[in-house]
Amino acid sequence: MQNRVLLVEDDDELRQLLARYLTNQGFSVREAATGNDGLSLARGQNCDIVVLDIMLPDISGLDVLRALRAETHLPVVLLTARGDETDRIVGFEVGADDYIPKPCNPRELVARLQALLRRIAWDQAVDLDASRTYGDLRVEPAHRRIYQDDVPLELTATEYEVLQVLLAHAGSVVRKTDLMQWALGRRLEAHDRTLDMHISNLRKKLGNDDPPRIETVRGLGYSYRVPA
Amino acid sequence: MQNRVLLVEDDDELRQLLARYLTNQGFSVREAATGNDGLSLARGQNCDIVVLDIMLPDISGLDVLRALRAETHLPVVLLTARGDETDRIVGFEVGADDYIPKPCNPRELVARLQALLRRIAWDQAVDLDASRTYGDLRVEPAHRRIYQDDVPLELTATEYEVLQVLLAHAGSVVRKTDLMQWALGRRLEAHDRTLDMHISNLRKKLGNDDPPRIETVRGLGYSYRVPA
DNA sequence: TTTTCCTTTGCACAACCTTTACACAGCACT
DNA sequence: AGTGCTGTGTAAAGGTTGTGCAAAGGAAAA
After folding, report:
1. Residue A70, Cβ neighbours under 10 Å: how many?
2. Please, what are the domains in chain B?
3. How far is B30 from chain A (nearest CA, A)?
4. Can you say whether the dihedral through the CA atoms of B17, B19, B20, B25 is positive or negative?
């Protein structure tokens, strides 16, 4: 169950050093010293992640990456001698997942490889219940909806954002300036009643309970009453 | 419609600089100046990715990350002044997806954010070669056809792509910009109504049900109504 | 060429965010 | 109680933005 790394690097000494370190860290390592070798090994589909030097004797690592991206989404970490910033940007644009400047600390390389593999594992595990419940309300970010007793509320985009923030802070007071910043994405100016309007509309849609679910804290902001 | 970044950084000047740059690059930005604010906002599930400074006035960015990881797999990029290698390793071990030392080039930050978001999109993409069924619709990638109650729909190439992407994400909202990228293979420019046209045509071919199978999520994109 | 399809253009319309306006509630001070 | 200030509730009007769709223009395939 160990991860298989394909290491494409022309400098024999460095490649063997890294290969040994990666092996010690529990990876199974395939090595290639040229771009073409690397490309055919990667195409073989028998590795989980590729570490790819950019400076190679035959074809550039960037071209190898381009060729790979034309057919797969195999994770690729670029490795390169001191990076001009533009180089890095290009690397990412071509489809790299990470970019590590040489000389690199092997520990950091391993940490980054593991972070990338972990990310992939997370993404592929069905990450459903990101939904949260507050009393009779249920927030479902995937649908961008909030359900009250399993009935979806007909909220506008802004209303959704506002209620979302209030729920995330359920039980404590959210200052108007923060609510404005977080839900509306701009600063609260004097005499701006926009927020009050959205709160008013939200209360209506939530059923105008008494006492209201969204409490007013005069001079401060609003607070969603924590469910009993 | 655009990716939402949560920027947690206490240095007002730097935060505003980055926020402005990210906005210009097409992100929608939410800001927090403290760890606690950042944590509540991230919990609110109203962002796609988090940029997190480690040095914060109240609680350490690492603790914020730990708390987040206890409940979500939200992508997190750490940002820090100290370049100590051990710090980086710790950051990754706690669950960071990337680690950028300050002072960071905003262009590189954006490139890394986009690489991470792209990786997630790739990972979550459904196996496009398997045939799938959604209610009365059946996608058969081998023939590039979609059947409604076993009767093939007369779709054009683009319509097939659009519907297929919507189905692959059935039940959740697909942003217009993503739909454009995945189905049409190019970026969504301002005033480009192409997608709206294809949606309109698709709805017609699907029978113009009411409520429509392809729901409009104003300001965001479209969503295929998950079959009961 | 003809046909099919993709894209652009233009207009109408709907959704919705914001402003305006006024009424009223809370609070401090007389 | 009365007065005035400040902050809030909400209806209605105003303005902006996003969307639906027909029709025409182009581009690509047949």
Report:
1. 8
2. 4-124 (3.40.50.2300), 132-224 (1.10.10.10)
3. 6
4. positive
CB-contacted nucleotides of strand D (7 Å): 7-12, 18-23
What is the per-residue pLDDT across A8-58, written as a single tens digit (0 to 9) for each?
A: 999 999 999 999 999 999 999 999 999 999 999 999 878 999 999 999 999
Q: Which residues of A touch B172 (CB under 8 A)?
A: 142-143
Pair type for strands B4-8 and A98-101: unpaired
- Using pLDDT thresholds of 50, 70 and 90, give the confidence band for residue A142: confident
The alpha-helical segments, DSSP class H, found in chain B are 12-24, 35-43, 61-69, 85-94, 106-124, 157-168, 176-179, 194-206
Alpha carbons B166 and B193: distance in angstroms, whole number = 18
- According to DSSP, the residues that pair with A49 across neighbouring strands are A5
The shortest C-alpha distance from B120 to chain A (Å) reads: 6
Q: Do A168 and B88 touch (CB under 8 A)?
A: no
Summarised one tens digit per residue, pLDDT across range B8-36 is 999 999 999 999 899 888 888 889 999 99
